[in-house]
Amino acid sequence: MTTVSRREILQASALSAAALGAAALAAPAMASPLDHARMLPEGLPPREFAAAVAELRAIVGQQWVFADADSTLPYTKSLIPDPDHRHVPSGAVAPASVEEVQAILKVANRYRLPLWPISTGKNMGYGMATPASSGQMVLDLKRMNRIIEIDAELGTALVEPGVTYQDLRDYLDANNLPFWLDVPTVGPIVSPVGNTLERGVGYTPYGDHFFMQCGMEVVLADGTLVRTGMGSVPGSTSWQAFKWGYGPYLDGIFTQSNFGVVTKLGFWLMPAPPAYKPFVVQFDEMDDVAKITDTIRPFRMNNLIPNGVLIMGAAYQLAMFHRRADFWTETRQIPDAVVKAEARKRGLGMWNTYFALYGTDEIIAAVEPIVRGAFEAAGGKVLTATEMSDNPWFRHHASLMKGGMTLEEIGIVRWRGTEGGMVAFAPVAPAKGTETRGQTALAKEILAKYDFDYAPAYAVGGRELHHIIFLLYDKGHPAEERKADACVREMITRFAERGWAAYRTGVSTMDLVAQQYGDANRALNARIKHALDPNHILAPGKQGIA
Ligand SMILES: Cc1cc2nc3c(=O)[nH]c(=O)nc-3n(C[C@H](O)[C@H](O)[C@H](O)COP(=O)(O)OP(=O)(O)OC[C@H]3O[C@@H](n4cnc5c(N)ncnc54)[C@H](O)[C@@H]3O)c2cc1C
Fold first, then answer.
1. pLDDT digits (tens, 9 = 90+) for 29-47
2. What CATH number does the domain located at 275-504 have?
3. Which of 36, 344, 431, 456 is the most exposed place for a label (fewest CB within 10 A)?
4. Helix (H, G, I), strand (E, B) or coil at 159
5. Could you tell me if the CB of 194 is within 6 A of ligand 1?
6. Which of 80, 123, 167 should be mutated for ligand 1, with most atoms under 8 A from CB?
7. Where are the domains of the chain?
8. CB burial of residue 63 (10 Å; 0-12, 13-18, 19+)
């Protein structure tokens, strides 16, 4: 811990103008045009901002506060459209301990400096590290990167925000611990903490990350430190073993919210099974998504298929390893016939459903004919490593369903144009064929109106699917950026008219999605927010909560 006395803080404040140099003081106010490399918080004069920066430097060290255009640049990088520069941070501060987080919050409260916490800041398709409104300072927790505890008997982990899935994988391997991780498709560079707090998903039987989460440590806006569940009991040995604790269950209010800074997170690890068998089922028509949904529903409900299943659209699969111009040079949406033909050349269907069976050879041998029979009866082609071992898409998904580390899917970001870009729209669908068919048709129609391609994946939970629609555009082309922004807003609005709302959204559409969850829901969130953070310094605007 860096202990900073009140006197030192005052001295640092007094020195601020000189110590900060021209960069912080010359920083333009929010309305200034400049190059949008950074923007100051609304209502905070440059001189006050500079004084706050000096105090933060006294807490974390000079080099861990980024408050000029050059050093803030990495935090401004985002793949989503932001044509009017509404999501530009004022800088970043990177603490190394809980005590430093608490001290930073004190400063932020005093100056009314809004802070946007991130873990590894790779929220790709949702805004990366950028805040819900310009001027917020990124609270970058990546220096807090300790794996605090792995319980090898219970298969539990307790980690800090800066730990990546790769760090954890390396630790398990180095210590010969027989556990699998469940990773999002960009696992190596992202964090269990950031992903779980966004209620992200992966593709083993432990794919619902918040479901597998157990115990948190949170710093509230006033600096109070809280441990959830059994973590509140002095000397408890079951913090990572029992989720619910006693009294109201609190962990949920710290996910997809701005009610606290999570400094530790517990979760469960999957025991490596003795046997594992991956499958892909291929269907050839866009409309077949209905049959796939209806076939898979009972197996997810009775857990015969235990993992987070992915139904991958052919355009998404092609975009992983190809660029649009390889197949189609017209501006308008790629016709289904072209997508289908290109997919077929590569041994892919129009829809490619990846699932796996886990356990022992005997269990897998007993379940496989039941599942295979159902898919074949629905018209699907069921394939395994025997036929697909050379197929790069099959290899990728086979690895993912056992928690493998890969960054191959990031390729989709460069589908279009010179710079590439993507924004995710992720409406929830109940696991009924009529619903997924309807969502697919509506998404295709709206995307076509704006000349964008339909590159979908459905991630199947128990009784619902997250329909992940990656809108791929060229951020290097300002008119296209604006069009992408309009298109995602139209999708959010028109899906909501049919009762389909997103489970998660990017920083530019948080308020729009919040509106769809209704006034009562928003008012309750606002009351909790005001009670916990009366100065509204933590991530204002996140999930539409001011
Ligand atoms: C090709 C591609 C594939 C993807 N696949 C998946 C996938 O399979 N599954 C999936 O879920 N996502 C996926 N993503 C989206 C995203 O990249 C991941 O969800 C990633 O894990 C989020 O980034 P992060 O872990 O760095 O979280 P961060 O960016 O650090 O955090 C996300 C948000 O959570 C909040 N937050 C983070 N840490 C804290 C904290 N300590 N206290 C309070 N609030 C905090 C902040 O609002 C922050 O903006 C994919 C993206 C791409 C481009």
1. 343 334 567 899 999 999 9
2. 3.40.462.10
3. 344
4. strand
5. yes
6. 123
7. 6-143, 147-271, 275-504
8. exposed
Higher pLDDT, 254 or 2: 254
Render pLDDT for 49-89 as a digit per residue (tens, 0 to 9).
Answer: 999 999 999 999 999 999 999 999 999 999 999 999 999 99
Q: Whose CA is nearest to atom 5 of ligand 1?
A: 185
Q: Is any atom of ligand 1 closer than 6 Å to the C-beta of 118?
A: yes
* Average pLDDT of every residue of the chain: 93
CATH of domain 147-271: 3.30.465.10
**CATH code at 6-143:** 3.30.43.10
- Active-site residue, selected from the candidate residues 111, 126, 203, 316: 126
Helix (H, G, I), strand (E, B) or coil at 217: strand
Going by alpha carbons, the residue nearest to atom 19 of ligand 1 is 195
| Residue with CA at minimum distance from ligand 1 atom 21 | 195
Dist. CA 351–CA 430, nearest whole Å: 18
Nearest atom in ligand 1 to the alpha carbon of residue 192 is: 25
163 in ligand 1 pocket by Cβ < 6 Å?
no
pTM, whole model, 2 decimals? Answer: 0.93
